[in-house]
Amino acid sequence: MPENAKKTVPKRKDRILDAAEALFAKHGFDGVSMRMVADSAEVDLALSSYHFGNKRGLFDAVLMRRAEVWNTARLDALEKLKSEAGTNGPSVEEIIDAFLRPMLANGYQDDPGWRHYFELVAQVNSSFEWGGQLMTKYFDPVVRKFMDALKQALPDADPVDLYWCYHFLSGALTLTFAHTGRIDQLSDGVVKSEDMLGAYERMVPFVSAGFKKLCEK
C-alpha cells in the first residue's frame, strides 16, 4: 500500500468479527461473552446481537468468513492442477502441494487476524465438541475433492490407509496452526513455530512420502 494511502477503517460488523476472532482464539468459545466482544470492538452490545443473533451465530460467522477464502483458493489450485495434468492426473506431491500452499505459503502469518484464525481452527479441529461438527460443515466438502484426487493418484490404496494418512496430515496442519512455541523451545530457537512457509516447504515432501509408503501397493 502506498505510504500516502488512507487506511480503510473497518466497518462495525467487521470490527465485531475481528474482535471475536481474537477473543475466541485466546479464550475459546466458553471463555468469551458477547459483552467482551462488544467492548473489544467498541460497539453497542445490541449491535453484536443484531448482526449475529447470539454467541454461536457469531462463532459460526467468524469461522465462515475466512473459510470461504481458503476453500476458494484450495479449489482453484486443485482445478488448475487437474487441468494442467496429463492423462494420468496429478501426482501425490502435486495434490498435497495444492492443498497446503494456499494456507501456509501466502504470507497469512504476517496478518494478526489470520494468525488468530489459525489458532481458532487449531482449537476447533482438535476439539471433541466442535471438531466433528464444524470442520465437517465448513471444510470437508473441499477436503473430499482432494481425497478424490488422491484416490485417482493412488488407485490401489486401501481406503483405511488413505484416510489415516489424511488424519495425520490434518494433525500436522493443526499443530502448525496452533503456534504453541513448543518447537521453538525444543530446537533452542533453531525452528520458529510461526514460520509457516518453512513448515509448508517440509510438510509437502514429508506427507507425500507417508501417503506413498502406506498407499502404494
Describe the overall structure.
The protein is mostly helical. The chain has one domain: Tetracycline Repressor, domain 2 (Orthogonal Bundle). It contains eleven helices and no strands. Helix 1 packs across helix 4. The termini are far apart. The relative contact order is 0.11. The model is unreliable at 1-7 (pLDDT under 50).
Distance from first to last alpha carbon = 51 Å
What is the overall number of helices?
11
Mind telling me the CATH superfamily name? Tetracycline Repressor, domain 2
SSE string, helix = H, strand = E?
A: HHHHHHHHHHH
Question: Regarding CATH, which class?
Answer: Mainly Alpha
> How many β-strands, per DSSP?
0
Q: Tell me about the biggest sheet?
A: none
From the 3D structure, determine the CATH topology: Tetracycline Repressor, domain 2
Percent strand: under 5%
SS content category:
mainly alpha
* Known CATH architecture: Orthogonal Bundle
Which regions have little confidence, pLDDT < 50, spanning 5+ residues? 1-7
Write down the overall geometry.
globular
List the defining traits of the structure above.
mainly alpha, Tetracycline Repressor, domain 2, 11 helices, globular, disordered N terminus
